[in-house]
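Write out C-alpha cells for Cof-type HAD-IIB family hydrolase.
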Amino acid sequence: MIKLITIDVDGTLLTPLKRLTKSNIIAIEKAKKAGVHIALASGRPYSGMQPLVERLKLNQEGNFTVCQNGSYIFDNFTHKPLSGTFQNPIDLKIIDELLKNFDIQISAMDHESFYSRHVKPNIYTKIDAKISRLPLQVIQYDDFPENKTFGRILIMGRKSEMDRLYKNMPRELVENYYAVRTAPFLIEVMNKSTNKGYAISVMAKDLGVGQEEIMSIGNERNDIPMLEQAGFAVAMANAVPELKIHADFITKNNLQSGVAYAIERLLANNLEIYK
C-alpha cells in the first residue's frame, strides 16, 4: 500500500506555463484525506516552493519539502531546513576554472539568495532567480565568508553551448560532483552525495515509510534517483527518455494533469500499485 507520494514540480506538477491545475489540486487533497503523505521534490529553493505548499495545504505539521534537488529538506510547518548536503565557495572556483573554455555563466544559491560573480548576469540567470523567488546578488568569490554554503551551483548558457558542454563534461566535474542537466539552458551541480532519491529516503525513514510504500512522479533526469527510490515509479508522458526507462507506469503529460491521473488511478485501486 502506498503511504507516501513524492512529486516533482516543474514539468510534472505544473503546466508548461507554471500553473497548478484544479485536477492536480483535487487529486492531492483526496490522497491526503486517504492518509497518504505528500512531498514535493524540486530543484527550486524553499522560497520558490512555499506558494505551492500553501496552495496545496501541505503546511501542516509532519509534512516536508525536498528542495534544490535534495540539498535541503524543509519542514513545511516550521519553514526551517532539517538537513542538507552542501558546497562552498572553493567548489565555485574549481568549477569556474574547469569550464573557463565554455561560453557559460556559473552562479550558486542557498535558501536565502542567488549569487553570481558576473556584473552582467545572463538572461538565464535572471530568469532562474526570478522563478526561485530569490534576490540576485553580484558578489566575487573571495568576498564570501569562509563558512558560506550553497545547495546548488548552476551552469547556464545558450542551448547550443550547453549541448557542447554536456557532451564534453570535464572528468573532474563528473567524478567529484553530482551534475545533471535539468533544462536545455541549465546544468545543476550538487554535492556528490546529493540527489532527490537520497533526500526522499531520509524523509521516508523519518515518517516510518518503507521503499515499497513510496510512489514517485517525475519527468527529468534529476528525478531518476527519486524514481529509483520508489516502490512505484511514475513518469510523465512528457518525460525525457532517460527517465521513462525507470518507470513502472507512464501517466499523461503535465498539460493534461498527469499527476492527477496517476493519483486518481491509485485511489481507485485502494492505494495499491497498478499497471
